[in-house]
Amino acid sequence: MVKLFLAGFESRLSNIYIDLLKKNCKAGIVVSYLNMEKKGKSLEKFIEKLSALKKRGIPIMIDSGAHGLLYAYKKKKGITIEFGHKISKKAEAILENSGYENYFNEYIEFTANYQDIFDIIVELDIQEIVGKEIYKYRKKFHKVGIKPMYVWHGEDKEEVTSWIKSTDYIGIGGTEGDSSIFRKIKVAKIIKSINPNIKIHLFAETGRNIVKYSRWIDSADSSTWCFGGRKGLIYLYNKGVIKVLSKKSFYKHYGKVFDWRSYRIDRWNLLQWLKFADYLERINYEDREDKCR
After folding, report:
1. Which CATH superfamily is domain 3-224 in?
2. pTM for the full model?
3. What is 128-146 written as a DSSP string?
């Protein structure tokens, strides 16, 4: 069984999506602290909606936004950034005005106040910026009663072994120059060899990769479902596979199921990914191995 967490809900927790999540509650959701509104009535309404989903049994993960901070930091320092990565203006403003230390203190205060809502709290994994100082951040989590998900970013086996006593969940992110699924699974196998009961989460992995390598992982996340409205793409679930179609191709094969407004495309696409999440929860190892040969 693999739990699929869907990302990109910071601005999409309206009723047209919430009702789908409640009816098809096999998927979890991920929200990014970096992209959330953090003050006033907007925050209150957002927390109310998360609480309602939590009561329906939908697991909720909060991500620290470290990925955005890291690329903003690289830009500020003039470090070459991999092609295709967009720099978050929010992250740039944080580094310019308050710095990542203050950002971390705000993040830990927020997660401590609302930890009853979040099933998984991801650490502020900025090892590439602070190095061994990351252990200081982790200690602060534990002091307020939070056992965060640690995130691997290239650490060796000996160092990862030392984490096992302090966390139940390890996320595997990318490293500079190699974010391939093959390297991530290699790391997952090493971690499972240290402790087979540790849970493994893959960041930003979707579709066939999850099915093929699911014996080594417990969860994964993706924001792919919400790209369709922006890029004019429609996803279609069928027998354990998510296909992506253009508007022309979709209409040709299936007719004009809905009009071409972005929120309706996103709603359709969300439904397809929820079906895929249900499939991931139901398949067993034997089925997965046969399907992927």
Report:
1. Glycosidases (3.20.20.80)
2. 0.90
3. HHHGGGHHHHHHHHHHTT-
